[in-house]
Amino acid sequence: MKLGPKRVGLLFVVLGVGFCLTLPATTVHSWTAGAGNAHWHVPGNWSNGVVPGPNPPSDDYAGVGASATPPTHSSDSGDSTVWKIAVYGGGTLNVTGGTLTTQDYFNVGTNGSGTVNISGGILNMDTLSSYPRIGAASGSAGFVNVTGTGTLNIAPGRITHWYLGMYAPGKIVQDGAGTTVNLGAVRMGYTGGNGVFELKAGQATTTTPSRQSWRG
Fold first, then answer.
1. Among 69, 107, 147, 190, which is most exposed with the fewest C-beta within 10 angstroms?
2. Which has more confidence, 45 or 57?
3. For residue 110, which of 67, 50, 63 has the smallest C-alpha distance?
4. Close Cβ partners of 116 (under 8 Å, ≥ 6 residues apart)
């Protein structure tokens, strides 16, 4: 049975409205340390007074720039999921406990340097879409240090590669007998970028060969 013109028009409108209602607006939450401490999970430390969260229900973007009191995700923060994170402009993110997960991209090193230190707990970079970039923009640099009992899982659900050193230097240093780094499908270096993974101690895995440097 064929739909007449009126039925086709009605079907289009209903589907169109449904689609629009499912699109969340992007909200940028910038780290301010406004509460006077380094706790990731304290709302007063973020620009909108809200701790960045997952999608759904919101399309939250956590921006971590330079700060005298950089954010720390600790065991008190529990398990946190955020849509997107960028560490930029001389910013630093510390993970000492709990589990911090991004669903979409995780950029380290845009508009200047970015550093992530993982000494405990688990950091999951990108579990749904896009891809992480460490050393993400020309003129910048990205650094990730995994020590103590820290665990780093990068793009665990992706089939295609992600970038260590995309347009800029990107480096991961793993140094701790109790550390674990799962690199996934890593591509080291892209369009002028240089990627380095330095394994000093700990357990590391990858699903693809690197294009540039693997030190250990």
1. 69
2. 45
3. 63
4. 87, 92, 93, 94, 95, 108, 123, 143, 144, 145
What is the token pair recorded at 16? 């169109």
d(CA 68, CA 38): 10
CA distance 163 to 197: 12
Residue 138 domain-assigned (yes or no): yes
Q: Which two tokens stand for residue 11?
A: 């079907």
**Would you say residue 6 lies in a domain?**
no
Indicate if the pLDDT at residue 17 is higher than 80: no
Global pTM? 0.85
Contact by Cβ (8 Å): 72, 49:
no
The answer to the question of residue 19 being in a domain is: no
Residue 69 inside a domain? The answer is yes
Q: Which pair of tokens denotes residue 205? A: 């895995």
Residue 121 structural domain: 25-215
